[in-house]
């Protein structure tokens, strides 16, 4: 952990070499997410609800997904750009250091400009909380925290899968964006609005629904089962097969050029 | 001690001819060709030896270095370095080695060199006194005094290479792999780097394995030469043995090597 802070330190110092760029990228990130927020607002200007979910509920749902995604992206960005790390030989450098590989990949690319997106997500979250008619109690607060933490872990898992696939092929991985950026976008609405099949996919294959739809039912009072609120913890188990795939990938690593 | 026995590694390389149609075709059917980067390689290197590892481009030099440094997992064969298998005990193994890739930087681009050094110190958890001692020695021998406070992107190639070598030695490794360390350097920097490596070997008895195309590097540094071509070790002997293979007497080392490449059809 101490070493991680050292890495953060060097990233911040690098970043400060390009202060203006940092500022503008952060603002840009903020605005892009704001755009999506406006999308929801205009939608609900015309329709009052989506599949029995009200405007404020959807807003709540989206802000939680966005928060989880932004955290994951901020800290696990290294995996998202993993193809280029392999391509330019940076990964070789990582392999010759006596530290965990996943740790090093995480700390070698910190996307601090994503601060913009996190700020956006927090603003939206606060707004959603004030708008929502949720009856808060201790369990619901824990549920929210679990949803965000679980979501971060699951998104991180998706990033790791993406990175592991890079060991086998360096191109044709665009489809993975469906599960990263795509998941963030369609995470705006509780997953059941997309139909049974998507819900099933997101429950058993890539457990987005475990941190979004099911606990959300409990959160907004559509269900009284506290156990639903604890499901994100189950979802974090997703990281286990992900890291298995990662290890398999390492053994396949071919490196590049001289 | 480095012990390598019957090491093999094959790559699958996708091939296609030039042209738009071929590019489209490669989208749905790719032709793969197996390339034997390493083909049953065996050798032993003792502690404190300085070995020159030569061969034409694509002969398998870098692949060997990558296997020895734990980056690649070979298909078959055995390799133990100081009693460890590099790709199985990666973390313990890499503490003992230093690697310099001439064409790749291990320093952080935008911050002063000293910041990179300190991060490397923390990564290897080098004890404070040892770090201070090593740093002072390296700064003096490689004359980095003025350089360490400059961001890496503002350094010249020669200055950067000296920093790279220092960075690889901060944790006092027993074995140093140098992959084309003098590539693109001017005469002064080359000589400085060579002198330093010689001194390092004499003072700390560091094992040095050097790949290079610069025969002057070989002549100045190494007493033993491994010649590799098409993934096979073709010659393992002293510099004099290599010189003895020349056809006419006053052939330069470059000419002798070129002649050997021809002879072995590599």
TrEMBL record, chain A:
InterPro entries xref list: ABC-2_transporter-like (IPR010390)
Record field: transmembrane: 20-42, 54-76, 141-170, 198-219, 231-250
Top-level division of the source organism's lineage: Bacteria
Keywords annotated in UniProt: Membrane, Transmembrane, Transmembrane helix
The name this protein goes by in its record: ABC-2 type transport system permease protein
Naturally occurring in which organism (per UniProt): Lachnotalea glycerini
Automatic annotation (TrEMBL), chain B:
Gene3D superfamilies: P-loop containing nucleotide triphosphate hydrolases
Organism domain of life: Bacteria
Keyword field: ATP-binding, Nucleotide-binding, Transport
Keyword Transmembrane: no
GO molecular function: ATP binding; ATP hydrolysis activity
Residue ranges annotated for the ABC transporter domain, each copy included: 2-255
InterPro entries cross-referenced by the UniProt entry: AAA+_ATPase (IPR003593), ABC_transporter-like_ATP-bd (IPR003439), ABC_transporter_ATP-binding (IPR050763), P-loop_NTPase (IPR027417)
Protein name: ABC-2 type transport system ATP-binding protein
UniProt source species: Lachnotalea glycerini
């Amino acid at each position: 952990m101490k070493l991680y802070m050292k890495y953060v330190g060097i990233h911040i110092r690098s970043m400060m070499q390009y202060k203006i760029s940092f500022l503008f990228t952060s603002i840009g990130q903020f605005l892009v997410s704001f755009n999506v927020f406006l999308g929801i607002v205009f939608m609900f200007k015309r329709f009052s609800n989506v599949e029995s979910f009200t405007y404020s509920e959807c807003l709540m749902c989206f802000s939680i997904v966005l928060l989880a995604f932004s955290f994951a992206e901020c800290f696990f960005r290294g995996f998202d750009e993993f193809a280029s790390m392999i391509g330019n030989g940076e990964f070789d450098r990582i392999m010759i250091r006596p530290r965990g590989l996943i740790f090093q990949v995480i700390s070698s690319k910190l996307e601090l400009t994503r601060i913009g997106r996190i700020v956006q997500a927090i603003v939206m979250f606060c707004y959603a909380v004030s708008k929502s008619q949720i009856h808060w109690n201790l369990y619901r607060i824990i549920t929210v925290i679990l949803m965000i933490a679980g979501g971060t872990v699951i998104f991180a898992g998706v990033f790791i899968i993406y990175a592991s696939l890079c060991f086998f092929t360096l191109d044709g991985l665009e489809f993975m964006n469906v599960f990263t950026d795509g998941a963030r976008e369609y995470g705006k609405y509780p997953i059941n609005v997309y139909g049974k099949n998507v819900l099933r996919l997101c429950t058993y294959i890539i457990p987005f629904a475990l941190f979004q739809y099911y606990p959300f039912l409990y959160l907004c009072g559509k269900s009284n089962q506290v156990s639903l609120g604890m499901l994100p913890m189950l979802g974090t188990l997703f990281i286990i097969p992900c890291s298995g795939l990662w290890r398999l990938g390492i053994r396949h690593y071919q490196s590049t050029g001289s | 001690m480095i012990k390598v026995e019957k090491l093999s590694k094959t790559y699958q390389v996708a091939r296609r001819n030039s042209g738009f149609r071929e590019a489209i075709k490669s989208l749905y059917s790719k032709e793969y060709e197996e390339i034997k980067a390493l083909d049953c390689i065996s050798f032993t290197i003792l502690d404190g030896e300085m070995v020159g590892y030569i061969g034409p481009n694509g002969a398998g030099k870098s692949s060997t270095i990558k296997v020895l440094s734990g980056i690649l997992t070979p298909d078959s064969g055995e390799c133990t370095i100081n009693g460890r298998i590099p790709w199985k005990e990666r973390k313990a193994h890499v503490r003992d080695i230093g690697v310099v890739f001439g064409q790749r930087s291990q320093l952080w681009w935008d911050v002063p060199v000293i910041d990179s050094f300190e991060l490397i110190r923390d990564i290897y958890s080098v004890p404070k006194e040892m770090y201070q001692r090593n740093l002072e020695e390296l700064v003096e021998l490689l004359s980095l005094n003025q350089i360490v406070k400059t961001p890496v992107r503002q350094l010249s190639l020669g200055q950067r290479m000296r920093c790279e070598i220092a960075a690889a030695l901060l944790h006092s490794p027993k074995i140093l792999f140098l992959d084309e360390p003098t590539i693109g350097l001017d005469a002064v920097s080359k000589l400085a780097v060579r002198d330093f490596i010689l001194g390092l070997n004499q003072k700390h008895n560091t094992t040095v394995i050097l790949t290079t195309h610069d025969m002057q590097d070989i002549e100045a540094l190494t007493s033993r030469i491994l010649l590799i071509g098409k993934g096979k070790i073709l010659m393992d002997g002293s510099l004099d043995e290599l010189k003895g293979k020349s056809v006419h007497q006053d052939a330069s080392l470059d000419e002798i090597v070129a002649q050997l490449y021809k002879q072995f059809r590599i």
